[in-house]
Amino acid sequence: MPQRPYVIDRMITAKAIAARVEALARDITAHFAGTDKLVVVGLLRGSFVFIADLVRELDLPVEVDFMEASSYGDTMTSSREVRILKDLRGEIAGRDVLVVEDIVDTGFTLSHVLHLLRARGPARIEVCALLDKPTRREVDIRATWTGFEIPDEFVVGYGIDFAQRNRNLPYIGKVRFTDAG
Ligand code: PRP
Ligand code: MN
Ligand code: MG
Question: Where does the Phosphoribosyltransferase domain lie (predicted)?
Fold first, then answer.
């Protein structure tokens, strides 16, 4: 299917993201102060940029692990079916866990992943999401910490894709189609 032409309008600058990441990291560090080890779980692919910046601001003993979950594929709407394509490498039973997600939209991805992880008996499990689109929620779920609440726009950059492109933009932008449709 050929891609409709679009441009990307800047929405959140790299500088604003960096400032917010620092503040989130301070809150998370305070919350988990004294932990013997925090397992930070990034949900691939979208969280790869955010988790890289976030863990470097955490003043805690940290292990980094990843799980790959996909529900959008190359489309703009959720399939509501979350495919787990890669599981964690480590065990999380009895551990403190921080799930890191780029965006919570319908909530299906986060809810599915939390359900799977909770069944493994972590000591504590919390979620940090960079972006939240509350108006699109279909599952009643929210992150413990959220970077920015955003309106119902299709966003890209800082790890987030549109049909696998634009993940490498250093800022968050919104997709605006330039054809008639
Ligand atoms: C996107 C995004 C979140 C999820 C949010 O992932 O990275 O993981 O969708 O949407 P939801 O709240 O409606 O479930 P996607 O399925 O596009 O995979 P990706 O991270 O590999 O891009
Ligand atoms: Mn994702
Ligand atoms: Mg995606």
Answer: 14-162
User: Ligand 3 is a single-atom ion; what residues have CB below 5 A from it?
Assistant: 72, 161
Question: What are the residue ranges of helices labelled H in 35-175?
Answer: 48-55, 108-118
Q: Which one, of 108, 116, 132, lies nearest residue 24 by Cα?
A: 132
Q: What domains are there in the chain, each with its CATH number? A: 6-177 (3.40.50.2020)
How far apart are the CA of 34 and the centre of ligand 1, in A?
A: 32
CA of 164 to the centre of ligand 3 (A): 7
Query: How crowded is the C-beta side of 54, counted as CA atoms within 13 Å?
Result: 33
This prediction has a pTM of 0.97
159 ligand 1 Cβ < 6 A: no
Task: Evaluate whether 51 touches 64 at the Cβ level (below 8 Å).
Answer: yes
Given the cut 0.90, state whether the ipTM is greater than it: yes
